[in-house]
Every structure is written in C-alpha cells, then in structure tokens.
Amino acid sequence: MSTTLPTPQTVQRSWFVVDATDQTVGRLATRIATVLRGKHKPTFANHVDTGDFVIVVNADKVSFTGRKLDQKMYYNYSGYIGGLRSRTAREVLARDPEHILRHAVKGMLPKNRLARQAISKLKVYAGPEHPHAAQQPEPFPAYV
C-alpha cells in the first residue's frame, strides 16, 4: 500500500461563496482559513497548496462579540517617527470593511510562502455582488 502525495498539478480547486451577514468575524475567519489551506480535503498536505477559492460577500455586515466594535484597535505603521495610526473596528468597518475579514484570515494562516498563495485565493466584497459568477461557486460547506 502506497501513500499518494498531492502535487500542484493534481490539485482540484473549487470555488465557494459565503455570506458574512451577521456572522462573527473570528469564527468565520477560522472556517475560511481552513478552506484556503485545504485542510477540509482528505488530500491535505502541509507542503502543497491544496486549498480552494473563497468568495465572501456582505463583508460590511459582519458582527463582533462584546464591545470589540469600539475597543478592538487596528494599527498601521508608516515606518516614520510618529507614524503609528490606530483605528477602532467601527472606523475600519465604515471605511474599508473588506480589510477586517482579510486581516483576520491572514492572521490565522501560517507565516510562509503557502500562506501568501492562500490569501490570494480569498476574494472579499462589501456588497452582495461579486464578479466570479463564471466560476460557478458553490455554497460554503457547513462541515468546515
């Protein structure tokens, strides 16, 4: 009996669409990170990118638990003295709602080349429409 390992040429990729309306940011991000890495597949190997594409719609309607909307801070440092900007989650949600989910998912991926490939398969949109209808995305799997 031999073990078959996946190669980049043999990976079958699917497209999934998830509606982020009224879903908690962290819980949704863990499920998305699992699918982006491919850990939901029986052919998962940690040295090959076996993940699927994920389309997130209605990113502006995500929810935070507790008082995180006003207490959670997002930081951006320009590299200059005094160049640290901090914004609350409420401000980031109003200005750039896609950033919240992309930032949460990126933090849950490993810090290596495979993570950079995986985060490129994440497509986040603030509204209900997305331009990926030609890929015929399936509903997000409930078992992840």
Keywords:
144 residues, 4-stranded parallel beta sheet, Ribosomal Protein L13p, Chain: A, 6 strands, alpha/beta, single chain
Write the layout of secondary structure elements.
Elements (H helix, E strand, L loop, with lengths): L14 E5 L5 H13 L15 E5 L10 H4 L1 E5 L6 E5 H7 L1 H11 L5 H7 L2 E3 L13 E2 L5
Parallel strand pairs: 1-2, 1-6, 2-5
Antiparallel strand pairs: 3-4
Helix pairs in contact: 1-4, 3-4
Low-confidence stretches: none
How many separate helices?
Answer: 5
Main β-sheet description? 4 strands, parallel
Helical amount: 25-40%
Query: How far apart are the first and last residues' alpha carbons, in Å?
Result: 29 Å
Just name the CATH architecture of one domain: Alpha-Beta Complex
CATH class of one domain: Alpha Beta
Question: Would you list the SSEs in sequence order as H and E?
Answer: EHEHEEHHHEE
In the CATH scheme, what's the topology name of one domain? Ribosomal Protein L13p, Chain: A
Report the radius of gyration as a whole number of Å. Answer: 17 Å
Can you say what the CATH homologous superfamily of one domain is?
A: Ribosomal protein L13
- Strand order, sheet with most strands: 5-2-1-6
Helix/sheet category: alpha/beta
Chain oligomer state? single chain
**Range of strand content:** 15-25%
Mean pLDDT: 94
